[in-house]
């Protein structure tokens, strides 16, 4: 499915052809589409006469950019040592079953991206999962099921 190039054009117009604003321009595209679609990078390269290779170099250098589509909601399972010994592998397995994807993938409906990290910096709470940055600690498979089977939007409301 193609992307809305008009949105890309509006962003390009906003930043103009100023090389010093190229990073901001890419950040806004990444924020708009939740990743940097190739079509968008090609469009920026054409309109701003910037080599595509240079844009890809920036996109791969900065970790905040994604080159593959991301889901609306990001589920992150900590697989660090402290979480691992407290059952993180079972949590990940259950999350993969519930979401129907493997770690590193995005669901076909574009709702979820599942990933793993090595430590979320709250080891005492392990096993730990974040959903859109919200921490959910001391999980077991039943709790992860409850967490992922309900909408993350309900979850966000509960935390507000
Ligand atoms: S190992 Fe999971 S939060 Fe540190």
Structural notes for this entry:
- Strand 3 and strand 4 (134-136) form a beta hairpin.
- Helix 1 packs antiparallel against helix 2 and helix 6 (88-99) runs parallel beside helix 7.
- It is built from eight helices and four strands; from the N terminus they run ααααβααβββαα.
- It has a four-stranded mixed sheet, covered by helices on one side.
- It has two domains: 5-61, no CATH class; 73-159, Glutaredoxin (3-Layer(aba) Sandwich), CATH 3.40.30.10.
- Helices cover 49% and strands 11% of the residues.
- FE2/S2 (inorganic) cluster binds next to helix 5.
Chart the SSEs and their pairings:
Blueprint: H1 5-15, H2 22-33, H3 38-48, H4 52-61, E1 73-78, H5 81-85, H6 88-99, E2 112-117, E3 129-131, E4 134-136, H7 141-149, H8 152-159
Parallel strand pairs: 1-2
Antiparallel strand pairs: 1-3, 3-4
Bound molecules: FE2/S2 (inorganic) cluster (FES).
